[in-house]
Automatic annotation (TrEMBL), chain A:
UniProt xrefs under Pfam families: CbiM
Recorded topology in the membrane: Multi-pass membrane protein
NCBIfam families with a match to the protein in the record: PRK11909.1
GO terms for cellular component: plasma membrane
Subcellular compartments: Cell membrane
Protein name in UniProt: Cobalamin biosynthesis protein CbiM
Keywords of the record: Cell membrane, Membrane, Transmembrane, Transmembrane helix, Transport
GO BP annotation list: transition metal ion transport
Gene3D superfamilies, alphabetized: 1.10.1760.20
Transmembrane segments: 7-27, 39-60, 72-97, 103-128, 140-164, 184-212, 245-265, 285-307, 314-337, 392-412
TrEMBL record, chain B:
GO biological process: cobalt ion transport
Membrane association type: Multi-pass membrane protein
Keywords of this entry: Cell membrane, Membrane, Transmembrane, Transmembrane helix
Descriptive protein name: Cobalt ECF transporter T component CbiQ
Length: 429, 291
């Protein structure tokens, strides 16, 4: 996430200093008030700590590794203002000494990772944790979610900064700096972080808070108390079971969807969740649900027993997804982000040019996610047949992708083995 | 056949067990090595090493600003040639200078810029059809992509040149000349010292973990260990900061920082600074009025 020099216009890079420098000033004053003369040693050591943990590799499923920033963890313990100075100092040393991130881009990098990240992380943590006991599981979740949102917000900021370049700085229609506009830069940065780095950061932060709760709960009080080594009323360990968490999240999501649907549907109860339910034939839906349930009872245990152990969990989840997918057919309108260009045009009133071009590339064998047969896809077939076709094509798709990946993987490992053998032979000679 | 496949799986297990540990240890070693290498080079007798650090920092800022503002495929390579010459005169090893600069960041910049070169709306030089999609560079997109990579490369070279020819303590002291508050300078210099202590402890922790690992452990356990060691380091940081503060207080530290400044700008330094400014103006003019 370190932006090197040359990606941002120097005017823009130095301009971010207008936001960064005052925050540093305020941060120094705030920290000084609490720590007095302890400020310098404490912050210096925590900056070194921040630099060091940015070098830690974290094992991720799949055999690769990732890095964490640890900004939220520091903010949870030291408070956001001290975290701002600690992380910024580490970033400046990285830029000035190790050539990691641009020198002119220091302000921008410090804004993204040194200010936005700890502040978002910390305030989300405080919002969720509120006055929960120090050892409660709620604090662990709060820190994890805070870290996730912190990194994601920081990635969003990078996306916005890069995406603003072609808008602000161009000559004769050609971008001078980073060439990607906002609608490319933001989704790229957001998606790549939200599905990867943010998850790692969230996990590491949550596990770190668990460790601190177990061994040094006093660090979760105020900074003043921590430094003065005050006694912390640790409280007892309160655990909230996972299913309660999931249920809470799910019901919150449903409530938000319901509210949003009611608002867009102008309070009409036939328009719950933003779609028009008056066109749904409920008897068809019933038949389809019965069939889907039957299939699920048969296929999911089958998948569990048939799949090899290494992919059992993942494979079963995918099969279950494929089996339950036809439920989506009930909802009138199109599944979001799955529709054909015509659906998109109907919904948004226009069709992006790139989408139109792209959709011609694949004239898929399962066009419209259904098998090309009149049994499944005729003009007046009942819903359950459509659902069945949908399901079969889903399962076939998963199978195809699986075979494809397996084939590529075997090819790669074979090549690898050949190289190894050649090396061994050479060693013998 | 059976033995090779079992060997492969052993290798895979090994990588899963130790890959992240080895990567971290290698990263720490690389950082320390780089620091030692830099200190070594910044103290060699050379052209840039002889200059006052304040002059050097100002020169760097002026030129990097000019390079960032430049948009010409003539000025940037010319500037790079000047940099190569300066590197030679400052006894920076050539292959190291080129390798370190070009293998890292501009290569990455090249990958980043590639889609924008090929997806363009103008008249294309050649056309690759993929279904209904057409790819191909236009001369304009090719030009702007090349300029982008050249600019990133030159900026990185400049930073590397500054780092390799100036001892860290001098860079810090010269920050004072730019009115960076003294407390920040002290913070940076203390941080820099403690970084090596922390890298040393982290290295010890990872090596201990590696040498004690027998058999397999799950990814969950490994991640738990990593975040546990982070928090353990954090605990040590608190303890250490208390000790350091006590030591500083015992030596009379009262929150104020004093430092003596033995540097004096000589005529040579002023000359170099003026030359750098001229170079920057020249680059700017080439970009604006010539090409």
């Amino acid at each position: 996430m370190h932006i090197p020099d040359g990606y941002l216009s120097p005017v823009f890079s130095l301009g971010t200093g207008v936001a960064t420098i005052p925050v540093w000033g305020v941060a120094v004053n705030k920290v000084k008030k609490v720590l007095n003369q302890r400020t310098v040693p404490l912050l210096a050591i925590f900056a070194a700590f921040s630099f060091t943990i940015m070098m830690f590799n974290i094992p991720v499923p799949g055999g690769t590794t990732a890095h964490a920033i640890g900004g939220t963890l520091i903010a949870v313990v030291l408070g956001p203002w001290a975290a701002v100075i600690g992380i910024s100092t580490a970033l400046i040393i990285q830029a000035l000494f190790f050539g990691d991130g641009g020198v002119l881009a220091i302000f921008a990098n410090c804004l993204n990772m040194g200010i936005i990240l700890p502040f978002i992380g910390y305030f989300v943590y405080r919002l969720i944790a509120s006055r929960a006991p120090l050892r409660s599981t709620r604090r662990v979740w709060a820190a994890g979610i805070g870290a996730y949102l912190g990194i994601t917000a920081s990635a969003l900021a990078v996306g916005i900064e890069l995406g603003l370049q072609p808008l602000l700085f161009q000559a004769g229609g050609h971008p001078l700096y980073s060439p990607y506009p906002l609608q490319v830069a933001i989704p790229t940065m957001l998606l790549s972080h939200a599905l990867g780095a943010s998850l790692v950061e969230a996990l590491v932060t949550a596990l770190g808070v668990v460790y601190i709760q177990k061994n040094h709960p006093q660090y979760l009080t105020t900074l003043r108390g921590t430094v003065a080594e005050a006694d912390a009323s640790a409280g007892s360990r309160q655990a909230m079971p996972l299913w309660q968490m999931l249920a809470l999240g799910l019901s919150c999501g449903l409530a938000i969807l319901l509210a949003a649907g009611l608002i867009t549907g102008h309070g009409d109860f036939t328009h719950l969740f933003g779609t028009d339910w008056s066109h749904v034939a409920w008897s068809d839906v019933g038949i389809m649900l019965v069939i889907v349930l039957g299939l699920a009872l048969g296929l999911i245990p089958l998948a569990w027993f048939l799949l090899p152990k290494s992919i059992r969990k993942v494979g079963t989840i995918f099969v279950a997804l494929a089996v339950f997918v036809p439920i989506g057919l009930i909802a009138p309108g199109f599944a979001y982000a799955e529709g054909s260009p015509e659906d998109v045009k109907q919904a948004f009133g226009y069709m992006p040019q790139g989408l139109k071009q792209l959709s011609g590339v694949w004239s898929a064998p399962f066009s419209g996610y259904n098998l090309q047969s009149s049994f499944f896809n005729g003009p007046n077939v009942p819903m359950w047949r459509q659902g069945l076709g949908y399901e079969l094509s889903g399962l076939l798709g998963i199978l195809l992708i699986g075979v494809l990946f397996w084939g590529v993987a075997t090819l790669l490992t074979h090549q690898h083995k050949d190289e190894n053998m050649q090396q061994e032979e050479r060693a013998h000679v | 056949m059976n033995t090779t496949s079992s060997q492969g799986s052993v290798k895979k297990t090994y990588r899963r067990q130790f890959g992240w540990i080895e990567k971290t240890i290698a990263g720490i070693a690389a950082a320390i090595e780089q620091a030692v290498f830099t200190e070594e080079h910044s103290r060699q007798p050379g052209l840039l090493q002889a200059l006052d650090p304040r002059a050097k920092l100002a020169m760097f800022l002026v030129v990097v600003l000019a390079a960032s503002l430049s948009n010409s495929l003539v000025a940037l390579p010319c500037l790079y040639l000047v940099l190569l010459l300066l590197a030679r005169l400052s006894k920076v090893p050539f292959d190291f200078f080129i390798r370190r600069v070009w293998i890292g960041i501009p290569f990455f910049a090249g990958i980043v810029i590639l889609p924008s070169v090929f997806v363009t709306s103008g008249p294309r030089l050649f056309d690759i059809a993929l279904g209904a999609l057409h790819f191909g560079p236009s001369s304009a997109s090719l030009l702007s992509g090349t300029i982008f990579i050249a600019r990133v490369g030159v900026s990185v070279s400049l930073a590397v040149l500054l780092i390799l020819t100036t001892p860290w303590s001098d860079i810090l002291k010269s920050l004072r000349a730019f009115h960076v508050p003294q407390i920040f300078v002290l913070l940076l210099s203390m941080t820099y010292r403690y970084i090596f202590l922390f890298l040393h402890s982290a290295n010890g922790m990872f090596e201990a973990r590696k040498s004690r690992t027998v058999g397999r452990s799950s990814g969950q356990e490994q991640r738990g260990w990593v975040s546990g060691s982070m928090s353990h380091l954090m605990n040590r940081s608190f303890k250490m900061s208390n000790d350091v503060y006590a030591a500083m207080a015992a030596r009379g530290f009262q929150g104020e920082v004093r430092s003596y400044n033995a540097y004096r700008m000589t005529a040579q330094d002023w000359l170099a600074l003026v030359l750098a400014c001229l170079l920057a103006v020249l680059i700017f003019c080439i970009g604006r009025y010539v090409l």
